[in-house]
Amino acid sequence: MSHQSTQQQRIEALRDLLGAANVLIDQQSLTHFGTDWTRYYTPAPLAIVFPTCIADVQALVIYAAEHSLALVPSGGRTGLSAGAVATDGELVVCLDKLNTIDAFNPVDGTLRCGAGVTTGEIQSFAEREGLYYPVDFASSGSSQIGGNVATNAGGIKVVRYGMTREWIAGLKVVTGTGELLDLNRGLVKNNAGYDLRHLVIGSEGTLGIVVEVTVRLVNPPAPHSVMLMACPSMPAIIEVLKAARSTLTLNAFEFFSDKALDKVCEATGWQRPVQVESPFYALLEFEQSDADAAQNLYAAVASQHWASDAVMSQSIGQAQQLWAFRERISEIISHWVPYKSDISSVISKLPDMLAAIDEIVGRAYPEFEIVWFGHIGDGNVHLNVLKPEALDIQTFSERCGEVNTWVSEVVREYGGSVSAEHGIGLLKKSVLPYSVSPAELAIMRGIKASFDPHGIMNPGKIFD
User: Fold this and answer.
1) What is the CA radius of gyration of the chain?
2) Average pLDDT of the segment spanning 83-90
3) CATH code for the structural domain at 337-422
4) Domain-by-domain residue ranges, the chain?
5) What pLDDT was estimated at residue 1?
6) What's the pLDDT tens digit per position in 244-277?
7) Do 1-220+436-464 and 337-422 show the same overall fold?
8) Cα–Cα–Cα angle for 357, 152, 84, nearest 5°?
């Protein structure tokens, strides 16, 4: 039987399994659903399928295992490491229709929902109930909770609230054999053996498909203010952070470079938020009751020449505008198809690590423009190398492969991680050994074999 006939038979079987309306094979859908925010790979899936319930997912996995059909779970496709890209005839399992909010328990402070519910929908539901879901990032309106779990998403409030991992009370996961695991079941205390929930969190769909999530909710934070400071150097920003942690209740501590601010102002027409131009800017969010302490903080750090100018919000609108200078960076620099490196280290080592990376990349490729920003308060920074307009994407990608290796060598030297929050996917697979040992890799492969004995769950991601 020809390859084409086999593929057609599989598509017909999938239509029988899920209904014809839930199986898409047109080129526009294959391209749209077969990739994420990375643009270095050409999507080439067999089909896009939309299970409508957990039983659909189980039946789909069983069929895929019987026919050696690779599966790529797909949520909001906002990832930046090509973890949700299908390049080799895989079946994309789009979880959009698992989007119901099933149960809210005000006593336990938990919310159970399908994997396709967006982060923003969870935040809005919590707000209506007078509660708060603290995991937040610029893509919250489109990213889905299943994808957040699969990548252990971080975002802008990690300095106070931690990563997605901290807020997952329970998970339902379909393994590579079609078995449904009900992990932790919302418990606060549960020491009954290994906590498999935490193996699944951050596994990028390589162990199973997350189909249902129970999240924890908390009381909302107090009203907040935002301050933006101009800082002369990365070491100065670290000094500001150290001083701020001892005097303010911080919700967030972000930074971005002057080049990042330039790009935002050029694209939007906004005026610069402070009068003094400086190499770096620190953005602090803190409780409004700390406003006087924040003014005193600025006076203290300015006297040490760690900051040269600052502006503090006087209203909710001003706070949102100051945040917009930080949050619009990724969207605006996407025009240059940037090579992104999502790295971390302990905070005290960040200035030296960033300086070393700047020097290496700048010496080798002086025509490459570098934009820095990130979550400095938790040691996570984002390196963005912008593609020159005249350079074709293939050549740029090849050169950035060299950059990737050099950056990873520096990260290893400073005891950091090659992926702080975006995962490994396809993009960082080659540099994973810079952050984990051969023994750790062997254990990871063994874990995957236990969850996914047929090797159908997002194969080729994280490792081969």
Assistant:
1) 23
2) 95
3) 3.30.70.2740
4) 1-220+436-464, 224-330, 337-422
5) 56
6) 999 999 999 999 999 999 999 999 999 999 999 9
7) no
8) 85
* Predicted confidence (pLDDT) per residue in 158-175, tens digit: 999 999 999 999 999 999
Q: Does domain 1-220+436-464 have CATH number 3.30.465.10?
A: yes
Which of 449, 426, 446, 450 lies closest to 438, judged by CA?
A: 446
Residue 117's alpha-carbon distances to 37, 128, 181, 209, 434, in angstroms, are 19, 16, 20, 15, 35
* CATH fold for domain 224-330: Alpha-Beta Plaits (3.30.70)
Evaluate whether 360 touches 370 at the Cβ level (below 8 Å). Answer: no
Q: Which two tokens stand for residue 114?
A: 């399908």
CB 285 within 8 A of CB 250: yes
Convert the pLDDT of each residue in 30-41 to its tens digit.
999 999 888 778
Query: pTM score > 0.85 for this model?
Result: yes
**Could you tell me how far CA 366 lies from the centroid of its own chain?**
29
Which residues have CB under 8 Å from 174's CB, separation 6+? 54, 57, 58, 61, 180, 181, 208, 209, 211
- Pairing mode of beta strands 91-94, 47-49: parallel
